[in-house]
Each structure stands twice: as C-alpha cells, then as structure tokens.
Amino acid sequence: MNAVRLSPPATLTNPGIVQVTIPLASSKSESNRALIIDALTGFQCDLKNLSTARDTQTMIRLLKSQDNTADVLDAGTTMRFLTAYFTVTGQQKTMTGTPRMCERPIGILVDALRTLGADITYLNKEGYPPLQINGFSSSESNRISIRGDVSSQYISALVMIAPLLPNGLTLELTGAIGSRPYIEMTLEQMAYFGADVQADWATNTITITPKPYTPKPYAIESDWSGASYWYSVAALAQDETAEINLLGLKSKSLQGDSAIVDIMRSLGVESTFTESGVRLTKCPTSEFLAWDFTDCPDLAQTVAVCAAVKGVTLHLTGIESLKIKETDRVAALQAELQKVGAELVELEPNHRYEVHQLTASHTVPATIKTYDDHRMAMAFAPVAMREEIIIEEPRVVDKSYPSFWDDMARVATVDFIDELFQV
Ligand SMILES: O=C(O)C1=C[C@@H](OP(=O)(O)O)[C@@H](O)[C@H](O)C1
Ligand SMILES: C=C(OP(=O)(O)O)C(=O)O
C-alpha cells in the first residue's frame, strides 16, 4: 500500500474583524484576448498586469510552443480562441484538454471556421475536442450566421481573427445572446488595437473590415469575477464595520461581472469607488432578490451561496449555460447548497430557479466538493464568515485566482489539513 499525498482540503474558521486591502488577480478574460491580439501583431504589444491564472499561463505557453499538440487543460477561452488563432495563422495543431474540456461543445465555432475555409477534423466525437486543425485556405465567404445562446467565446474567437481575413467578416448572431458583455469586451479591446469593428445590437450584426491590428501597450484591469468573492465576504461578515478595499478595479469596466456592484447592494454591500479601486462596506439587505445572469453567468455561484447563507430568497434566470462550464454548475450547486442548509430548485424547467434557506439544521462544518471547478471553491469559501467550512481540492482556484487562499487568510484562518491519504 502506497502513501500518497493528495491536495489537502482547506478548513476555514474564525473570522475576526474584516478590515482588509486586497490587490486582486487581474482578469483572465481580458488577458487572453490581449494575448491573442498581441500574437496577431507578431508579439509587438507591451502587455502589463497579465493574469497569473492558469488559463492565461496556458495561453502564453501554447502561443509560443512549437509542439503539434496544444493541450489547453480546462481553459475554455484558451481552447476556443486558440482554435481560431491557429487556423487563421495556418498552424497544424491537435487541440485537446481535460476530460471535461472534451465534453464542452465546440461544433458551432468549428462550423463557422470551416465556412471561412478551415480544414478541421474531430478526433473523437463530432462537435467536441479533441480536434485536428489541418489547414486553412480562405474562402470568399465573409458572412456567417451563428447561434449566440451556447457560448459567446465562439463569437469572440471569430471576431478576433476577422481583421486578418481577406474579406473581413460579418457575423449575424441568431437566437438569444448569452454573455454579451464578453463579446463587447472583445470588440472594445480590438478597437483599442486599431481594428475597424461595428456592432449593431438592434439587428445583432457585427461587421469587421480587413485591417491589421496596431501594436500598442495595454494594461489589464483587476478581475471583477474574482472581486465577487470579496463582495460575498463583506455581505456575510458578522463585523458590522467590515471594510474591504479591492485594488485595481474601475467603475467603468470592460467586464460585465462588474454587475456584482448592483447585485450586492441588495445583499448588503455598498461600493464606493476610490482612486485605487473600490471600497466595500455594509448596507441594509433585501429579503428577496431576482437576477438574470445571462450577461454575467460566472457570478451565479457567488450570489447563490451568499443569498442562501444570508437567508435571502433568490430567483435566478439566465443560468442555462452553467451546465456546460467547468462542471454542470447547476447540479453542483444543488448538491452542495444542501450542505449549508439551503436548496436550489427549478421553478420553470431549464429557465427559472430559486435558492432558499431550509428550516432544518445542517452539519457544521460542511465539506464542500468542488467538481474541478474553481468557482465552486471560491463561492463557498466566504461561508467561513458565518461557520466553519471545509473545501475539498482547494487548488482548483489556480484556474483563475491562484492567490485566493493567501488573500482569504487575511480574513479567516485557512488550514490545509496536511494528512496522508492511503491508496
Ligand atoms: O469570453 C470569456 O472570457 C468568457 C466568457 C464566458 O463564457 P460563455 O460565453 O461560454 O458564457 C464566461 O463564462 C467565461 O468565464 C469567460
Ligand atoms: C467558465 C469559465 O471559464 P472558461 O469557460 O474559459 O473555461 C469560468 O472561468 O468560470
């Protein structure tokens, strides 16, 4: 029998006074777009404050790698953006990732790239990674209809390569559009680097003319998705004088997850923008909150856990895309919220959900499974402001926010139970 050391769970206890300044990780979404655009200029941009997130480090590594295989691990943007980038730059690559990545659909993007002239084949299951990029000879076609309701990352991937296409690109987005702020972020960053982009949101049409990017310096903003966990800490803190200063955030952000400012006002957190970022303090809480997460799906877990523990009834819509992210986040929330005395129920099939507290008591500390999903770990960590909690596989946070536990250790005691597991 071998003794192996697995990633020890994190136990979070004893929140004291919550008075803290957090430098925050920078945005992996902004970083990964800037890196693709930089690569399309021949790596001539001076990118500042790039994210230390694994998703971004993977992007950096794969952009420079000469290997025939690009393993994106569990990074969705890296998979989708690189598939388009390697195609348009004529690089023959095998694109693969974790087993979960190979369950996350990519057919909509591949179909669009094929229309533009790509030769791409699936190596296992049609519509899913792994896939093989065999070559690209650009077609006359520069007008594509594409569904907007599965993942905005396909659209971001296509528009970023569009300035290099001989005829540019016109994308007609069909159906509902999910995660639209991420598309707008892409277009804003492209425009900053000199691309000629036009979005008509009345007709859901995006037009990009052929025109090379202009290399320029660019500084990445702090990560609003990562900031959301600090909002939850402030909302759940017992310390009525709690004050959290989050550095590097701006009130006018490219990131749609800055919607956390408005959401958390109902959950008892006031935001004051300062020269250095945003200051969180406590304010009165509502008893009920309804929110449509179509534009900000990555906030749903944070808000669901926070509302559940605070005893605020929450109605969620726009969370369909959660089922195809790092894990099925709806199922994961349903299982784990029970452990902190709450439940997530479906009010209208696949459309409207409710989170509410249960009257029965629950076992403390709860041990939360994270399902290879960084946001499960970080969404449940703030529960420590109310009761002891154990988070399994805590290093999942490395995907987007590697310093998360170091930062949490400033408002809670974080113990990694260093035990030997027998196999
Ligand atoms: O473009 C991006 O940077 C992202 C878009 C969103 O994905 P979907 O468009 O698949 O919802 C979001 O959930 C993801 O974390 C990052
Ligand atoms: C869904 C996420 O990332 P991605 O789709 O890029 O893997 C996320 O960070 O929550």
From TrEMBL:
Entry GO MF terms:
3-phosphoshikimate 1-carboxyvinyltransferase activity
Q: Which GO terms describe its cellular component?
A: cytoplasm
Which HAMAP family is this protein grouped with?
A: EPSP_synth (MF_00210)
Q: Which Gene3D superfamilies match?
A: Enolpyruvate transferase domain
Family indicated by similarity: Belongs to the EPSP synthase family.
The catalysed reaction is:
3-phosphoshikimate + phosphoenolpyruvate = 5-O-(1-carboxyvinyl)-3-phosphoshikimate + phosphate
Q: Which residues form the Enolpyruvate transferase domain?
A: 68-408
Positions contributing to 3-phosphoshikimate binding: 28-29, 33, 151-153, 179, 298, 325
Its EC number is: 2.5.1.19
* Active site positions, chain numbering: 298
Q: Which residues bind phosphoenolpyruvate?
A: 28, 76, 104, 153, 329, 375, 399
Q: Note the PANTHER family from the entry.
A: AROM/DEHYDROQUINATE SYNTHASE (PTHR21090), PENTAFUNCTIONAL AROM POLYPEPTIDE (PTHR21090:SF5)
User: Keyword tRNA processing: yes or no?
Assistant: no
Keywords from the UniProt entry: Amino-acid biosynthesis, Aromatic amino acid biosynthesis, Cytoplasm, Transferase
Q: Which InterPro entries match?
A: Enolpyruvate_Tfrase_dom (IPR001986), Enolpyruvate_Tfrase_sf (IPR036968), EPSP_synthase (IPR006264), EPSP_synthase_CS (IPR023193), RNA3'P_cycl/enolpyr_Trfase_a/b (IPR013792)
Q: Which gene encodes it?
A: aroA
Pathway participation: Metabolic intermediate biosynthesis; chorismate biosynthesis; chorismate from D-erythrose 4-phosphate and phosphoenolpyruvate: step 6/7
Any one biological process term the GO annotation gives: amino acid biosynthetic process
Q: What protein name is recorded for this chain?
A: 3-phosphoshikimate 1-carboxyvinyltransferase
Q: Where in the cell is it found?
A: Cytoplasm
Q: What class of enzyme is it?
A: transferase
Q: Per its database record, what is this protein's job?
A: Catalyzes the transfer of the enolpyruvyl moiety of phosphoenolpyruvate (PEP) to the 5-hydroxyl of shikimate-3-phosphate (S3P) to produce enolpyruvyl shikimate-3-phosphate and inorganic phosphate.
Subunit-structure text: Monomer.
